[in-house]
Amino acid sequence: MMSSEAGKFEPVHLVTENPNGWLRATMSSNLDKLRQVAHLPTTQLRAVALALEQAKRWESATGQKPEDSSFTLIVPIHNEKRFLPSFLSSLAQVDIPTAVNAKILLVTNGCTDQSPQQVDSFMQRLGDLEEFKLSSNLGDSGLVLDATKTKVQNIEFIHLNTSTPSKANALSVGNKLAVANGHPISMSLDANNFPHPNAIRTMYATAYNEIVTSPTKVKVFSARPLWERKPSLMSTFTRKTQEPVLAQYSPRKVVGWFMAWDTNWLESIGGLPRVALEDYALGVRAWRAGYQAKVLEDVQVWGYAPNSLRELVSTRARNYRGKLQILEQDPLCVDVLREDDYLMRDFPQRLSFLLTKIAQSPTRTHRSVLNFLIGELGIYKALQDYKKDPSLQSWEPILSTK
Predict the structure, then answer these.
(1) Which residues contact 191 (CB under 8 A, 6 or more apart)?
(2) In a 3-state reduction of DSSP, which class is residue 293?
(3) How confident is the model at residue 1 (pLDDT cuts 50, 70, 90)?
(4) Could you tell me which residues come within 8 angstroms of residue 24 by beta carbon, excluding any fewer than 6 positions away?
(5) pLDDT given for residue 231 in this prediction
(6) Alpha carbons 152 and 311: distance in angstroms, whole number
(7) Which residue has the higher pLDDT, 236 or 402?
(8) What are the residue ranges of CATH 3.90.550.10 in the chain?
(9) Do 327 and 390 contact (CB within 8 A), yes or no?
């Protein structure tokens, strides 16, 4: 949890919309920390001890004292009014000492709901708001130059607002600010996902080591995604439970829920690719340049999976449309995309893929056929959407995940 000055009470942060797996992991982590100081006689002494132990955990994991650590965390927010209050409150549970020099950028982009007001309300609970002017050279004509910020010791929360509805744009703007602040590591966390309390610390430690301390070919890191699906007719049919399921990913796939990257490298390639599937496109861009992406198994983040046939079709449509946009920007990626996703292959090859799946697992024929039909409907929808607006980076909301 974020500690504050010893002996001071922090505002109450309620989390009501959360995956069960995240709640269990967070409660277990917090209880372990509280047990370590339960023997101390006063609240003030326990607060001091918690802060000291937190600093030790940070230095042990990162090799840096908290006050010598710095990073930028970007949170792109697009119409997230349902999950946003719980997500913002979950940030109070992350295990970051307040001595760390961190910039947490809350970027509301193209919002038509109450998300910007929810961000302001959260920041007001943290401390007094200060208005300031942004530079006009951040590469976004829709960016409102009047911004607000507040601080919890060295951790600064900043609210940026833009009329441009694009996660890629929001992350690119945030990366420019990270460059200006001299932060070699930038991270992003989606506003409807919930990280394990130690996730940011572990992500930063790994990224800093492999980008700065002992450079490797890895330029992009992502967390292990743990999916949960709320009870529904769809979940009953597919026998999915609420237990987290490890998502499958190719060596080039970047899981966009929680990412970290080399700030200066991303700036050198012009920021995130402006497509509807910006995370995967970033992994492909790194691979094409001779670099790598890596999923970190010990960094966990929870989120909800689509919960109806309509939502599954919309999700497949967004993925297919995003890959069409990648191909438009780089046609030489076609073989890579076909290797990573059978939906990018011709119809006879897709049908052959289905028949192979059925032959391998006859008892799962109904699931294989359903998955195939959802994919075909997604392709049809994607082609219609792409025809209407080939450059569209946003997508219709998936209500069970928002």
Answers:
(1) 75, 76, 77, 80, 83, 84, 87
(2) strand
(3) very low
(4) none
(5) 62
(6) 39
(7) 402
(8) 20-305
(9) no
* pLDDT at residue 247 in the model: 46
Q: Are the CB atoms for 129 and 123 separated by under 8 Å?
A: yes
Cα 159 to chain centroid, rounded: 17
Q: How far is CA 23 from CA 26, 28, 222, in A?
A: 5, 8, 21
Q: Where are the alpha helices (DSSP H) in 297-364?
A: 309-329, 334-340, 347-360
- Cβ-contact 107, 77 below 8 angstroms: yes
- Euclidean distance between CA atoms 173 and 138, whole angstroms: 6
Pairing of strands 218-228, 245-246: antiparallel
Residue 55 CB neighbour total at 10 angstroms: 18
CATH of 20-305 among 3.40.50.300, 3.90.1310.10, 3.90.550.10, 3.40.50.11270: 3.90.550.10
Q: How confident is the model at residue 245 (pLDDT cuts 50, 70, 90)?
A: very low
Q: What does pTM read for this prediction?
A: 0.90
202 to each of 206, 265, 348, how far by Cα in Å?
6, 21, 44
Q: How far apart are CA 247 and CA 227, in angstroms?
A: 7
Quick one: tokens of 328? 């438009």
Q: Per this entry, what is the length of the chain?
A: 402
Taking the C-alpha atoms of residue 19 and residue 24, their distance in angstroms, rounded to an integer, is: 9
Rounded Cα–Cα distance for residues 353 and 233 (Å): 27
Percentage with pLDDT > 90 across the chain = 81
How far is it, in rounded angstroms, from Cα 51 to Cα 249? 37
Say how many Å lie between the first and final Cα of the chain, rounded. 24
Q: Are 220 and 294 in contact (CB under 8 A)?
A: yes
Q: pLDDT class for 401, splitting at 50, 70, 90?
A: low
Q: Check: CB of residue 299 under 8 Å from CB of residue 257.
A: no
The predicted model gives 22-32 an average pLDDT of 92
Residue 238 CB neighbour total at 10 angstroms: 16
* The pLDDT of residue 396: 74
pLDDT of residue 69: 98
